[in-house]
Amino acid sequence: HILNSAAPPKPATSFAHFGFDEQLMHQIRKSEYTQPTPIQCQGVPIALGGRDMIGIAKTGSGKTAAFIWPMLVHIMDQKELEQGEGPIAVIVCPTRELCQQIHSECKRFGKVYGLRSVAVYGGGSMWEQAKALQEGAEIVVCTPGRLIDHVKKKATSLQRVTYLVFDEADRMFDMGFEYQVRSIASHVRPDRQTLLFSATFRKKIEKLARDILVDPIRVVQGDIGEANEDVTQIVEVLQTGQEKWGWLTRRLVEFTSAGSVLIFVTKKTNCEELATNLNQEGYSLGLLHGDMDQSERNKVIADFKKKNLPVLVATDVAARGLDIPSIRTVVNYDVARDIDTHTHRIGRTGRAGEKGLAYTLLTTKDTSFSVSRELMDLAMQNPWFRKSRFKGGKGKKLNIGGGGLGYRERPGLGSESTVSLALLLLAYFMYLFIFNNLFYTHTHTHTHIYIYI
């Protein structure tokens, strides 16, 4: 749905309504797109109309194509680049992996018009990137810090930029790039067209939008900040780290038979330790963390994409922006540090309309999710929560709202240790759904969360 806009363009319902020429349509069909996604139906007409836009959409929604296709039309309407001029379109994103994926899409669709794309990101060769920029390219896909480095060294210029995209703006802010994002926006001509995409719409992002966009149309797919509805979330509460390890080794064969598996851990050392232990158990897997050099990372991602590696163990920064449709299961072996990281983790599965499973493993060590008295008092004001907080019985299944979320308990567990785990679970449950404004009461959501104690 659309918020905060007067007379927005009508949404399209098929690719024919976009008015693309046969060259681009042929490439879209060749890329196995059958019909536009909701964000494309509304976002593409807005972008084609030259309007600034804020797109709030879940991961895997098809938003990348929603800004790439209009970008190509925009570039073809501009005067051709002359020798020494900088790009016409700049796409800014938080990580090198996402940068490479968007660059790949730009090349795939841009080649029909002979348009050139260059990717510049930290960890890549400055000299090679500078050389590619100086040779000329209509499109630059970049991480914010590296683009600023190249502009300062005069490898490129932002004077010709009239189409500016900030993708996953919330993650750029989380990674400390607010200053760089604002700096880039301030050095691009004011009559540009700007598109800003984010999975969440917090106050900092709202302020950024007010500062750098002009009369934007805000398009929201689903509810602001919600998790991907195509993902079933399951929380497993376990006593110890050893139980957690046992759970993973028991289930991994089952998970890999359904598709690729992505396992998240929070620290590089944990990542290496878990990968080593799984290797010793005979599992074929890839390892991905921020300290690996770029060529190693690229090889691991390529092998995982080609299904040569059925399992990938990764840290959050390393796996940021991975778009691999074959991922059917995400395992949060370590709990995410915050709700946005959790949302983006589970968004690695259930992409492009496919269904996915996301498991979160909790042990008694995860006490950082303890609930304050004020938060508990707030939760107790909710009739469902107050009733279910004290409800007993065997084998019950309680639903929130119209069946959107489920709580499932194993029968016959009532020991003191189980009670402490239940309190831990309650803390995590409240952390996800109350403190972060995700305590669903509306009946139309299809997200399912099952919690096992």
Q: Can you tell me about this structure?
A:
With 453 residues, the chain is an alpha/beta fold. It has 2 domains: 2-220, P-loop containing nucleotide triphosphate hydrolases (Rossmann fold); 231-452, 3-Layer(aba) Sandwich (Rossmann fold), CATH 3.40.50.300. The chain is built from 17 helices and 17 strands. An 8-stranded mixed beta sheet has the order 1-8-2-7-6-3-5-4, with helices on both faces. It is globular and about 65 Å long. Pfam families: DEAD, Helicase_C. GO terms for molecular function: ATP binding; hydrolase activity; RNA binding; RNA helicase activity. Residues 13-41 form the DEAD-box RNA helicase Q domain. The chain crosses the membrane at residues 419-440.
Feature tags:
453 residues; alpha/beta; Rossmann fold; 2 domains; 7-stranded parallel beta sheet
Strand order of the largest sheet: 1-8-2-7-6-3-5-4
Looking at CATH, which topology of the largest domain would you report?
Answer: Rossmann fold
Structural classification: alpha/beta
What value does the Rg take, in angstroms? 23 Å
Uncertain ranges: 392-421, 433-448
Annotate the secondary structure layout:
Layout: E1 2-3, H1 22-30, H2 38-48, E2 53-56, H3 63-76, E3 89-92, H4 96-110, E4 117-120, H5 126-135, E5 139-142, H6 144-152, E6 163-166, H7 169-174, H8 178-186, E7 193-198, H9 203-212, E8 217-220, E9 231-237, H10 241-258, E10 260-264, H11 268-280, E11 285-288, H12 294-305, E12 311-314, H13 316-319, E13 327-332, H14 339-346, E14 356-362, H15 373-379, H16 383-389, E15 397-400, E16 405-408, H17 416-433, E17 448-452
Parallel strand pairs: 2-7, 2-8, 3-5, 3-6, 4-5, 6-7, 9-14, 9-17, 10-12, 10-13, 11-12, 13-14
Antiparallel strand pairs: 1-8, 15-16
Helix pairs in contact: 2-3, 3-4, 6-8
